[in-house]
From TrEMBL:
Cell compartments where the protein resides: Cell membrane; Cytoplasm, Cytosol
Function field: Appears to function as an adapter protein that bridges proteins together or proteins with mRNAs. May function as a ubiquitin ligase-substrate adapter. Additionally, associates with translating cytoplasmic ribosomes and may promote the expression of specific mRNAs.
InterPro entries: Glut_rich_SH3-bd (IPR006993), SH3BGR (IPR051033), Thioredoxin-like_sf (IPR036249)
Name of this protein: SH3 domain-binding glutamic acid-rich-like protein
Family listed: Belongs to the SH3BGR family.
UniProt keyword annotation of Cytoplasm present: yes
Species this protein is from: Gasterosteus aculeatus aculeatus (three-spined stickleback)
GO-annotated molecular function: SH3 domain binding
Keyword Ribonucleoprotein: no
Top-level lineage group: Eukaryota
Keywords: Cell membrane, Cytoplasm, Membrane, SH3-binding
SUPFAM superfamilies on file: Thioredoxin-like
Name of one Pfam family that matches: SH3BGR
Subunit structure, as described in the record: Monomer. Interacts with PFN1/Profilin-1. Interacts with ERBB2. Interacts with ATG12. Interacts with BECN1. Interacts with translating ribosomes.
Length: 115
Protein backbone atom coordinates (compact mmCIF):
# COMPACT_ATOMS: atom_id res chain seq x y z
CA UNK A 1 0.00 0.00 0.00
CA UNK A 2 1.31 3.40 -0.96
CA UNK A 3 0.01 6.68 0.39
CA UNK A 4 -0.42 9.10 -2.50
CA UNK A 5 -0.69 12.84 -1.92
CA UNK A 6 -2.04 14.74 -4.91
CA UNK A 7 -0.49 18.20 -4.98
CA UNK A 8 -0.06 21.15 -7.36
CA UNK A 9 3.56 22.31 -7.52
CA UNK A 10 2.60 25.48 -9.35
CA UNK A 11 -0.38 26.56 -7.26
CA UNK A 12 -0.84 30.31 -6.95
CA UNK A 13 -2.65 29.84 -3.64
CA UNK A 14 -0.50 30.20 -0.52
CA UNK A 15 -3.21 28.38 1.45
CA UNK A 16 -2.97 25.31 -0.81
CA UNK A 17 0.85 25.42 -0.69
CA UNK A 18 0.82 25.53 3.14
CA UNK A 19 -1.69 22.67 3.33
CA UNK A 20 0.40 20.54 0.96
CA UNK A 21 3.57 21.24 2.98
CA UNK A 22 1.74 20.47 6.22
CA UNK A 23 0.55 17.05 5.00
CA UNK A 24 3.86 16.03 3.42
CA UNK A 25 5.89 17.38 6.35
CA UNK A 26 3.81 15.39 8.84
CA UNK A 27 4.09 12.19 6.81
CA UNK A 28 7.86 12.60 6.41
CA UNK A 29 8.38 13.44 10.11
CA UNK A 30 6.46 10.29 11.08
CA UNK A 31 8.35 8.17 8.52
CA UNK A 32 5.18 7.33 6.62
CA UNK A 33 6.19 6.46 3.07
CA UNK A 34 4.24 8.46 0.51
CA UNK A 35 4.32 9.41 -3.14
CA UNK A 36 3.79 12.95 -4.42
CA UNK A 37 1.52 13.08 -7.45
CA UNK A 38 1.70 16.47 -9.14
CA UNK A 39 -1.54 17.47 -10.86
CA UNK A 40 -0.03 20.66 -12.32
CA UNK A 41 2.73 18.94 -14.31
CA UNK A 42 0.94 15.69 -15.12
CA UNK A 43 -2.47 15.71 -16.79
CA UNK A 44 -2.93 11.99 -16.03
CA UNK A 45 -2.57 12.64 -12.29
CA UNK A 46 -5.05 15.53 -12.46
CA UNK A 47 -7.60 13.46 -14.36
CA UNK A 48 -7.21 10.45 -12.03
CA UNK A 49 -7.54 12.58 -8.86
CA UNK A 50 -10.65 14.35 -10.12
CA UNK A 51 -12.29 11.09 -11.18
CA UNK A 52 -11.53 9.28 -7.91
CA UNK A 53 -12.56 11.83 -5.27
CA UNK A 54 -15.97 10.47 -4.16
CA UNK A 55 -19.08 12.50 -4.96
CA UNK A 56 -19.78 13.29 -1.29
CA UNK A 57 -16.27 14.76 -0.89
CA UNK A 58 -16.48 17.05 -3.91
CA UNK A 59 -17.03 20.80 -3.58
CA UNK A 60 -20.47 22.03 -4.60
CA UNK A 61 -18.91 23.97 -7.48
CA UNK A 62 -15.69 23.37 -9.37
CA UNK A 63 -13.17 20.57 -9.01
CA UNK A 64 -11.60 19.08 -5.88
CA UNK A 65 -8.45 21.00 -4.94
CA UNK A 66 -5.18 19.59 -3.65
CA UNK A 67 -4.02 18.20 -1.39
CA UNK A 68 -6.10 15.03 -1.80
CA UNK A 69 -4.88 11.89 -0.05
CA UNK A 70 -5.27 8.28 -1.20
CA UNK A 71 -4.04 4.89 0.00
CA UNK A 72 -3.33 3.33 -3.40
CA UNK A 73 -6.71 3.90 -5.07
CA UNK A 74 -8.70 4.16 -1.81
CA UNK A 75 -9.72 7.75 -1.03
CA UNK A 76 -8.66 8.89 2.45
CA UNK A 77 -9.67 12.54 2.37
CA UNK A 78 -8.68 16.15 1.81
CA UNK A 79 -6.66 18.51 4.00
CA UNK A 80 -9.53 19.24 6.40
CA UNK A 81 -10.13 15.52 7.03
CA UNK A 82 -6.37 14.98 7.49
CA UNK A 83 -6.17 17.90 9.94
CA UNK A 84 -9.10 16.53 11.98
CA UNK A 85 -7.50 13.06 12.09
CA UNK A 86 -4.19 14.58 13.21
CA UNK A 87 -5.93 16.54 15.99
CA UNK A 88 -7.62 13.30 17.14
CA UNK A 89 -4.35 11.27 17.01
CA UNK A 90 -5.98 9.09 14.34
CA UNK A 91 -3.83 9.71 11.25
CA UNK A 92 -2.86 6.06 10.77
CA UNK A 93 -6.53 5.00 10.83
CA UNK A 94 -7.35 7.88 8.45
CA UNK A 95 -4.67 6.60 6.06
CA UNK A 96 -5.82 2.97 6.39
CA UNK A 97 -2.55 1.99 8.10
CA UNK A 98 -1.76 0.21 11.35
CA UNK A 99 -0.39 2.55 14.00
CA UNK A 100 3.18 1.60 14.96
CA UNK A 101 3.82 0.47 18.56
CA UNK A 102 4.68 3.40 20.81
CA UNK A 103 2.83 5.98 18.72
CA UNK A 104 0.22 8.19 20.40
CA UNK A 105 -2.43 6.56 18.22
CA UNK A 106 -1.39 3.00 19.20
CA UNK A 107 -1.40 3.99 22.89
CA UNK A 108 -4.88 5.54 22.57
CA UNK A 109 -6.18 2.38 20.87
CA UNK A 110 -4.66 0.20 23.61
CA UNK A 111 -6.34 2.33 26.31
CA UNK A 112 -9.71 1.99 24.53
CA UNK A 113 -9.30 -1.77 24.33
CA UNK A 114 -8.66 -1.99 28.08
CA UNK A 115 -11.84 -0.11 28.99
Amino acid sequence: MVIKVYIATSSGSTSIKKQQQDVMGFLAANKIVFEECDIAANEGNRKWMRENVPEEARPTTGNPLPPQIFNDSQYCGNYEAFFDAREDNAVYAFLGLTAPPGSKEAEALAKKAQQ
